Amino acid sequence: MNAQRKHSSQRRKSDSDLLDKIEHFIENHIEDKIKKGLDDVEDFLKREFRELRDKARGKNGDEGPFSYIEQFLRDKKVASVAPSTKFLVNKVLKRMDLRSAQTVIEYGPAEGVITRPILERLPSDGRVVAIELNPGFVATLRQQLASEPRLTVVEGSVTEVDKIVAPLGVPPADVIVSGIPFSFLSPLERHHLLHKTVDLLRPGGRFIAYQVTTHLVPLMKYHFQDVDVDFEVRNLPPHFVFTGYK
Ligand SMILES: C[S@@+](CC[C@H](N)C(=O)[O-])C[C@H]1O[C@@H](n2cnc3c(N)ncnc32)[C@H](O)[C@@H]1O
To answer: Which of 30, 140, 223, 234 could join 87 via S-S bond, C-beta 3.0 to 4.6 A?
Structure first.
């Protein structure tokens, strides 16, 4: 092994040891605190939100930055109180490697915080299929990105992704990116969803999931040849980023 390869393999090993340590620390010391903290944020918003929103509402009645929080309070499956931060978005985008991608499928786009930069980077003949359960987010996304012919927004559950994608006639996906909370799916649903995800990817394609916990890792390792784990602390809450290579 030459010196450069040896160095990069040692670096990967020390990165992976560090991520293992972070994972154990979060699981043993702060996962419950994060959950409790988020429950407190939710309680606070339930008490204070409507008043704050009404004061800040634009003259035309639009919710502005509050529309995401409104959906979060109405719909448990939205799962996070705010869209991903630019730090998490950048980390996810870097993992996607969109330079030569043609087809991207997104699970749980919400208002499109990741959909927009994907479209900015995708070639003019690329396609993005975004599957979102929340009807409010679907309406916002369709309205705000109405002039984007490369984007198809489908209202539905990603558990049906095979049936949703089949009639669209898109080529096998280069990248599938997911912000959905896997913890809301049963173990069997998670397994079926990863199975369908692998089927939809081209050989060498990648699946990127950003999640609060590491519980998905063993299942990802079962379904993908290789799995990378990354971590972004500058997000509410901090998130892991898992990349599975087919
Ligand atoms: C944590 S938010 C992430 C939103 C956005 N991608 C971001 O990074 O800020 C999860 C999103 O997944 C959606 N979602 C949850 N379960 C879903 C499912 N089974 N199928 C499709 N979308 C789902 C929620 O409605 C929500 O928009």
So the answer is: 234
What span, in angstroms and rounded, lies between the C-alpha atoms of 109 and 115?
A: 7
Angstrom distance (rounded) from CA 96 to CA 122:
11
Q: At what angle do helices 67-74 and 31-56 cross, to 10 degrees?
A: 120
* Spatial distance between the Cα atoms of 99 and 123, rounded to a whole number of angstroms: 8
Cα–Cα distance, 134 to 108 (Å, whole number): 9
Q: Which atom of ligand 1 is nearest to the CA of 157?
A: 20
Write the class of the CATH domain 86-245.
alpha beta
Q: Compute φ and ψ for 49, nearest 5 degrees.
A: -60, -50
80 lines ligand 1 (CB under 6 A): yes
pLDDT in tens, 109-130: 999 999 999 999 999 999 999 9
Record the tokens describing residue 104, joined without a space.
Answer: 């991207």
User: Which ligand 1 atom is the nearest neighbour of the CA of 184?
Assistant: 16
Nearest to 190 by CA among 224, 219, 226: 219
38: which residues sit within 8 A by CB, 6+ positions away? 81, 237
CA of 179 to the centre of ligand 1 (A): 5
Residues 6+ apart with CB under 8 A from 33: none
Residue 87 CA, chain-centre distance (Å), reads 13
Q: What phi and psi values does residue 170 have, to the nearest 5 degrees?
A: -85, 150
- What digits encode the pLDDT tens for the residues 37-96? 777 877 777 777 767 766 766 555 566 667 788 788 788 888 777 899 999 999 999 999
Location of each CATH 3.40.50.150 domain in the chain: 86-245
